[in-house]
Amino acid sequence: LNSAYLELHYIPWVSNVCITLTAVPRNYDPALHPFEVPREYTRALNATKLERVFAKPFLSSLDGHRDGVNCMAKHPKSLSTVLSGACDGEVKIWNLTKRQCIRTIQAHEGFVRGMCARFCGTSFFTVGDDKTVKQWKMESPEYGEEEEPIHTILGKTVYTGIDHHWKEAVFATCGHQVDIWDEQRTSPMCSLTWGFDSISSVKFNPIETYLLGSCASDRNIVLYDMRKSTPLKKVILNMRTNTLCWNPMEAFVFTAANEDYNLYTFDMRFLESPVTVHMDHVSAVLDVDYSPTGKEFVSASFDKSVRIFPVDKGHSREVYHTKRMQHVITVKWTSDNKYILCGSDEMNIRLWKANASEKLGVLAPREKAAMNYNQKLKEKFQYHPQIRRIAQHRHLPKSIFCQIKEQRIMREARRRKELNRRKHSKPGSMPFVSERKKHIVAVVK
Hints:
Elements: E1 4-13, E2 16-25, H1 36-53, E3 58-62, E4 69-74, E5 81-86, E6 90-95, E7 100-106, E8 112-117, E9 123-128, E10 132-137, E11 151-154, E12 161-164, E13 170-174, E14 178-182, E15 190-192, E16 199-204, E17 211-216, E18 220-225, E19 230-237, E20 241-246, E21 253-258, E22 262-267, E23 276-279, E24 285-290, E25 296-301, E26 306-310, E27 318-320, E28 328-333, E29 339-344, E30 349-353, H2 365-380, H3 385-392, H4 398-423, H5 435-438, E31 440-444
Antiparallel strand pairs: 1-2, 3-30, 4-5, 5-6, 6-7, 8-9, 9-10, 10-11, 12-13, 13-14, 14-15, 16-17, 17-18, 18-19, 19-31, 20-21, 21-22, 22-23, 24-25, 25-26, 26-27, 28-29, 29-30
Helix pairs in contact: 1-2, 1-3
């Protein structure tokens, strides 16, 4: 063992043998271990190489939909159950353990625009292009019983999104405006609006459960408080935000997926500038979902890739893609923090590992100890050029690789042009604008 050498003493006692273990402390004097750092560096290098060798994140593809997968929802109580809605109005419930579809419902005519599960897991809600909100039982109907919704609400306009309150029998829909509904009523408790454009997404805060955020097509992100029945404030960005997701561990933090290829993490108390701008995608970001730890989030993009970002870093730590995967519309991070699900245009749901090189199944104690030791070594030497190069290298599809290269040239050209303008202008006439503040137009309270 590294910490201590063990000596065995055999002491005869009556008819049995008594074994005494004596711990001898290890001498940590650096003079006795002259090559400790080079030895650890070599181990860290080998661990980093092996991590890339064993990085096989793709686990399974769930086939069965006959049209593109438009939305997904997680079961709040069951890790193995996930729901998906397609562009042909079909809803499927999947068992991830068996990797099979266990139930299919023809829920709507036209697209299934949004879906969410009730906080207790007994039922789920769907909205579609047919202007209806439907509540369905989570369990399959009995033999001979017809597949029918528990409740159906017929609205005046098309609903584009839905989300359920985390603790109460209340849900919110969005479309022409944000409506707050009680499950027992067929008309909304209150309607919230600010502006005249359609709203694409609405999300309840999992910690401060009375707060909710929405994204509108006029480039706004609007925050509401259910108790006041009025909007709190809104931030206007340069381009439209497709959806947002609240951090499950930090009540005031949310991340917005934008059309300008970036994601923005905001603190709702200081909307004047985002906390972090996450750049790496080369096309519009369509969906985002947080890990249960709140330390990372996953994003889905029109550029046919899925990326995992640490919440405090500007660049992704991982990118997933396949030859067959088309535009990724929706993405979810499972509640056990181990897997990622993504739904795309070509009718498939794909299951990925959240940590690409993680070994699945039960680990022996020695395996666990070796894994933790290697992880610490990689963290210790992560900034060494050779190790950093190997750890960060990713193979990308040619289209994404070329677009990244092209955007780098364009960004460099813009920076050079700005530098030249500043050089030939009156001192102080061209102030420096940080990358964070460039994309914010205004904050309205």
